[in-house]
Design goal:
Elements: E1 3-7, E2 10-13, E3 18-25, E4 33-39, E5 46-52, E6 58-60, E7 68-73, E8 78-83, E9 92-99, E10 107-108, E11 112-117
Parallel strand pairs: 2-11
Antiparallel strand pairs: 1-3, 3-8, 4-5, 4-9, 5-6, 7-8, 9-10, 9-11
């Protein structure tokens, strides 16, 4: 059974940092891209970052470039999203998703709430 479990969300002040984790199981981790999406109330789901767990290629939406860093620990089947210089606009539920490419999601986690106060 494919499972993606996010953790690390919470409440933080503007300018602060959080690190999200996405623990994967039930599939060959190195065969997939792992994506981070977010969705705020009343807004469309947005792709935030993506990593090719095979070759380590990393991709970011312009809104988070320079502030967020995606990484993977293939030995632990876990992808991380380090979020620095957080802004109130970053407030959303963050989801990780596995797929064959970036900005796609075939398997999804349950999401973790990130709230940034001003």
């Amino acid at each position: 059974e494919v499972q993606l479990v996010e953790s690390g969300g919470g409440l933080v002040q503007a300018g602060g940092s959080l690190r999200l984790s996405c623990a994967a199981s039930g599939f060959t981790f190195g065969d997939y891209f792992i994506n981070w999406f977010r969705q705020a109330p009343g807004r469309e789901r947005q792709g935030v970052s993506c990593i090719n767990t095979n070759d380590g290629g990393k991709y970011y939406d312009d809104s988070v470039k320079g502030r967020f860093t995606i990484s993977s620990d293939n030995a632990k089947n876990t992808v991380y999203l380090q979020m620095n210089s957080l802004k109130p606009d970053d407030t959303a539920v963050y989801y990780c998703a596995a797929s064959w490419g970036c900005w796609l999601g075939d398997y999804w986690g349950q999401g973790t709430q990130v709230t940034v106060s001003s």
